[in-house]
Amino acid sequence: xxxxxxxxxIILEEGTSGSEAYVITSGKVHVFRSKNGKRFTLAVLxxxxxxxEMSMIDERPRSASAAALEDTEVSVIxxxxxxxxxxxxPTILNIFLKSVFERLxxxxxxxxxxxxxxxxxxxxxxxVLISGLTPEAEAALGGxxxxxxxxxxxxxxxxxxxxxxxxxxxNDLYLEDKKPFNISRNHFSIQAxxxxxxxxxxxxxxxxxxxxxxxxxxxxxxxxxxxxxxNILIVGDPESPYKFKITI
Length: 248
Known about the structure:
- The protein is an alpha+beta fold.
- The chain is 19% helix and 35% strand.
- It folds into two domains: 2-115, Jelly Rolls; 129-247, Tumour Suppressor Smad4 (Sandwich), CATH 2.60.200.
- It contains four helices and 19 strands.
- α2 packs across α3 (90-115).
């Protein structure tokens, strides 16, 4: 069943009961938690992403709220529909499993952030653009700058599974690579959280270079904040063919 929500409309509320999951077919959704009248961003989701799936599994109250950031259409899936779709359309199961894997990874990072005193309060830039500075980077973006409209925005290596990458690859931007691999299957993400926009390593082997500073790999740093204005990102080692400019 498909439903349409207008910009700003609440789709589900934290603490309420529910047994349905939602797959975004078009538009953008803000997932957040509320405390003392303030909203704390958990994610900004776009097309082909799923939310509300945990309540479909355990039938416990919703752990977060979700609202349409623009006019949005979703497919509503209950237990029975999910079982049927998982048999007739395996891509639904793929989307679901990727969502669960990424949620577990995010929970691990949240625990680590809390241990070192990093706030999970939401942050949203007016506009974030990513542009290619090499032919390979331009080709990955389709030859033009791309506005990033959802966070986290995940980048990694294209695998034999194609752009969907199988169950163990979950990316919004896939980069072509050959052995010896410079790009990891799940390499880094761009995340929005206080005090700004971050490059967050996702367990990559070589890490990335952001404004001449290494993050991930053997650096010991798991994330680095992006500066207002232009930022230079090299994915992998310094000779990587994937060099981007991120403008905030």
